[in-house]
Amino acid sequence: MSELRERTTADVDTVIGWVPDAAALYRFAGPRLTWPLTAQQMHDSAAAEGATAWVMDVEQRLVGHAQLTRCGDAVRLGRVLIDPTQRGRGLGRRLVASAVERARQQGAVRVDLSVLADNPAARRIYATLGFTPAPVQEASDMIAMTRNL
């Protein structure tokens, strides 16, 4: 059974351990965070963006991270990451579905996200959960996606 809960300070070092290099950091956070990733950066970026960071536990083991940021009547989903040793088990899909449900519970009417164009696994997960390409695209290496709730 999986549980989505708010990220605590104790979770941050585990999540940072899933980001082994600058390329992985860019996949996780885009250009806003810098290598090497620190707990202070994670805390400061979430606070500055008014975001709530969530983690997913499976059988009391931390396996995933996602961040939700309120943007008017929508929520922006970002910083989605699964423990590299746990990938390929459907946990990314479960994490995103749980985050979308959390956004719905918060009264959002839409969830928006950006995904790297060269990340087909993530793009497939988002598509299977009802996300479609947004009409306006942000950057050449990113695909903006949206889902109405």
Summarize the model shown.
With 149 residues, the chain is an alpha+beta fold.
Sequence stretches where pLDDT stays below 50 over 5 or more residues: none
The average pLDDT score comes to 96
Query: Total helix count?
Result: 5
What is the CATH top level name? Alpha Beta
Strands ordered across the widest β-sheet: 1-2-3-4-5-7-6
Number of strands: 7
H/E series, N to C?
A: EHHHEEEHEHEE
By helix and strand content, what is the structural category? alpha+beta
- Structural Rg: 14 Å
Bin the strand percentage. Answer: 25-35%
Per the CATH scheme, the topology name is: Aminopeptidase
Query: CATH homologous superfamily, by name?
Result: Gcn5-related N-acetyltransferase (GNAT)
Oligomeric status? single chain
CATH architecture: 3-Layer(aba) Sandwich
What distance separates the N and C termini? 24 Å
Helical amount: 25-40%
Tally of individual domains: 1
Which term fits the overall shape?
globular
Annotate the secondary structure layout.
Layout (H helix, E strand, L loop, with lengths): L1 E5 L2 H9 L4 H8 L9 H11 L1 E8 L2 E11 L2 E9 L8 H15 L4 E7 L3 H9 L3 E2 L8 E7 L1
Parallel strand pairs: 4-5
Antiparallel strand pairs: 1-2, 2-3, 3-4, 5-7, 6-7
Describe the protein's architecture and organization.
- By secondary structure, the chain is of the alpha+beta class.
- It has a single domain (2-148), classed as Gcn5-related N-acetyltransferase (GNAT) (Aminopeptidase, 3-Layer(aba) Sandwich).
- 35% of the residues lie in helices and 33% in strands.
- The chain has five helices and seven strands; from the N terminus they run E-H-H-H-E-E-E-H-E-H-E-E.
- It has helices at residues 9-17, 22-29, 39-49, 91-105, 120-128, and strands at 2-6, 51-58, 61-71, 74-82, 110-116, 132-133, 142-148.
- Strands 1-2-3-4-5-7-6 form a seven-stranded mixed beta sheet, with helices on both faces.
- A hairpin with a 2-residue loop joins strand 2 and strand 3.
- The radius of gyration is 14 Å and the shape is globular.
- The two termini are 24 Å apart.
- The relative contact order is 0.15.
- GO terms for molecular function: acyltransferase activity, transferring groups other than amino-acyl groups.
- This is GNAT superfamily N-acetyltransferase.
- Residues 2-149 form the N-acetyltransferase domain.
